[in-house]
Fold Glycosyltransferase.
Amino acid sequence: MAHKRVLYISYDGLTDPLGQSQIIPYLSGLSNKGYRITILSNEKPQNYHENKAVVEEKLEAANIQWKFTFYSNKPPVVSTAFGVRRMRKMAFHLAKKQSFDIIHCRSILATMVGDSVRKKLGGKLIFDIRGFWADERVEGGLWKLDNKLYNAIYTYFKKKEKEFFKTADAVITLTENAKNHVLEHFKTKENFQVVPCAVDLDHFNPDHLNQTLISDLKTKWGVQPDDFVLSYVGSLGTRYRLKEMLQFFKHLLTLEPKSKFLFITKSDTSQIYKYCDELKINTNKIIIDSCSYGEIPNYIAVSQASIFFIVTSFSGKAVSPTKQGEIMSLGLPIVCNANLGDSDTILKETNTGIVPPDYSDQSLKNSAEELLSFTTNAATIRAAANEYFALDKAVEKYHSVYKNL
């Protein structure tokens, strides 16, 4: 168990917000249990230069080695193949210098790298799927299956996914919903673990908020003491139902004219204004800002509730939004769409949020009314976050997988 050497491969960067919230904390916990960890990641140049020092400090404190390649998305399609090839070359270089007992791969692209190393140099392979990646790209409109090239690419990745489910020494999913699908079609229960996106309860702790910063933000954004602020935190893209979230806000605004919608995002926000114009929402009611990972709790804390609507076709089975644990840890209720991984089930079972059954005007209006009269207190919501999303519990689940390999 102790002193096993682990090569952890991530196609995402440690200097990305998700790297800081979802990779480094887990691996720091595992390093404290005696595992000797080397991370191979794929860094976006801008994020790397902005956050390199912070990440290096955290990894040094956890005694974790870090190697990386640089990410590029140009030209489309080909860049991904080149990225995998660069990471594979680096992985072989690392594995030849020191043999790894465990090769833990975060996503299908990382597993394409790790599986090559396992086949030639040995080690136990963990397929940590994160999501049904190929299906996400189809359902998000990035890959059109009536295009022969994208159809062939989709077929290739689904074939690789099936292969990895069958040949990996362990499989990890984010949701019970995804686990049930995999067990039904590909895998036995042996060494299978569900680890939802966890939250650092200490970082997202209402008692640790910077009240001066929160007050300054309210002044900056023009938030009044009696305003009702709905927040959205994270990326905006093809997988997120931005228009429907704004439709919900429009109903909220009708019921409570002092409402505001706060977007905490580094994504392109032009679509927000486009839909506001289409839905006739006064953009004076919209606040858009961004911040570092360290400041996110204070930004979310300006709001009274948060929302996320995410596309829920087949790939939705595997979705575990990082933001869910973070928001609940701060004691805020969530408005979330139905049939999203395990998210809606958790909110319903713990009475910590609102789940509209669909996106009809009546359903969104009813849910807005429910939100304004929501009574579950912050302590109860935070307790539910601890039950489902606590970081230490996630580390123990990973530890149980590592021990069995």
